[in-house]
Amino acid sequence: MQKMGTDLKKAISLLQSGQAVAIPTETVYGLAANALMPEAVAQIFELKQRPAFDPLIIHLADNTNLNRYVRETGPFFDKLYQAFSPGPITYILPKKDLIPDLVTAGHPTVGLRFPGHPMALDLLKSLDFPLAAPSANLFGKVSPTSAQHVADQFGEGLEYILDGGKCKVGLESTIIDLSQNDPIVLRLGGLSLEEIEDVLDKKVAFTKSSSSNPKAPGMLSAHYSPGIPLCHGSLNQNLEKVNRQRTGSISFCKKVAGIPDKNQRVLSPNGDLKEAASKLFAALRSFDEAEIDVIIASEFPQEGLGRAINDRLRRASVS
Ligand code: TXA
Ligand code: MG
């Protein structure tokens, strides 16, 4: 049976019957199911081997039925929605009872995202329920940015993967908590802190949650593991420790001296952080088959999407 394709009708009927389907978004692929049906949501946790304390975000086509799902949107939501949705941002807002506790892991808030991918939007417009969808990877592993990445991880376990091509953004959405007095970014992602601050015309805090009681467990250290030890930081120091012939490198715009070309991943020769972000996860995966013992990754510029790239590399690293 064909497991991967562009058959929207098939995806719709599977989702309507309570099954999980992998879907494309502009950030990363999601593992989606009817957010209002706990049995469907339970499948996501099972397939992903995700702990039930880790809440899921829900995906909507637009803000028309928002008051069915959230109690209030507060003073910042409208501005951000106008500027960035659909797009790579997730809003945390106080939830209404219609959203099952399983989705939010018992939290009184729910994450809402309006994805920018045309296929995801078509799908959401055809459904009369929102889709709960975490990134379509096994818990703790690198998020998928193509349909094939999803197939590689889930194989036969998944009924259908809707193929929308490569994800343009390539990093998960930026999560902003709007349930408190002041907006707080909980996860840096496809939208930069600077862009958010520009629109709100104020400084916005970025708080990493503690790993004992994570607000966004995607923030746990030892997440995004590529399966091969990765060292992030000063290239020169790391180069001293490794056998360069058996090392892979991830760098921004320049090659790394002494590493064989086939093991080099230069993410953007022109120095474009957006391009680099879109290629990061595919680069991490591309080492799966490489004959290397270690990956060394440089520090990216700590601005714009470079901050999110550094964040993911730090989490992927061994120490
Ligand atoms: O770009 C994305 O956001 C992708 C695509 C598929 O939409 N989704 C995604 O979902 O990255 P996931 O589950 O892999 O990451 C969502 C993060 C998790 O770390 C979760 O803990 C956090 O959002 N989260 C969800 N609901 C939350 C809530 N109510 N409060 C705080 N954090 C929440
Ligand atoms: Mg994830």
Strand-residue proportion: 15-25%
Shape: globular
Give the distance, in angstroms, between the N- and C-terminal Cα atoms.
43 Å
Bound molecule kinds, no repeats: threonylcarbamoyladenylate, magnesium ion
- Total domains: 2
The ordered string of helix (H) and strand (E) elements is EHEEHEHHEHEHEHEEEHEEHEEHEH
Number of helices: 11
CATH architectural type of the largest domain: Alpha-Beta Complex
CATH superfamily assignment of the largest domain? DHBP synthase
Report the count of strand segments: 15
Q: Average pLDDT across residues?
A: 93
Order of strands in the sheet with most strands: 2-3-7-4-6-5-9-10-11
How would you sum up this structure, described in words?
By secondary structure, the protein is of the alpha/beta class. It has two domains: 4-206, Alpha-Beta Complex (DHBP synthase); 230-316, Rossmann fold. The chain is built from eleven helices and 15 strands. Strands 2-3-7-4-6-5-9-10-11 form a nine-stranded mixed β-sheet, sandwiched between helices. Strands 12-15-13-14 form a four-stranded parallel β-sheet, with helices on both faces. A two-stranded parallel ribbon has the order 1-8. α10 runs parallel beside α11 (305-316). The longest helix is centred in the last third of the chain and has 14 residues, at 273-286. It is globular, with a radius of gyration of 19 Å. The structure holds threonylcarbamoyladenylate and magnesium ion (MG). Threonylcarbamoyladenylate (TXA) is lined by residues 25, 27-28, 30, 54-57, 90, 92, 104, 107, 109-111, 113, 115, 133-135, 172-173, 175, 186, 215-218.
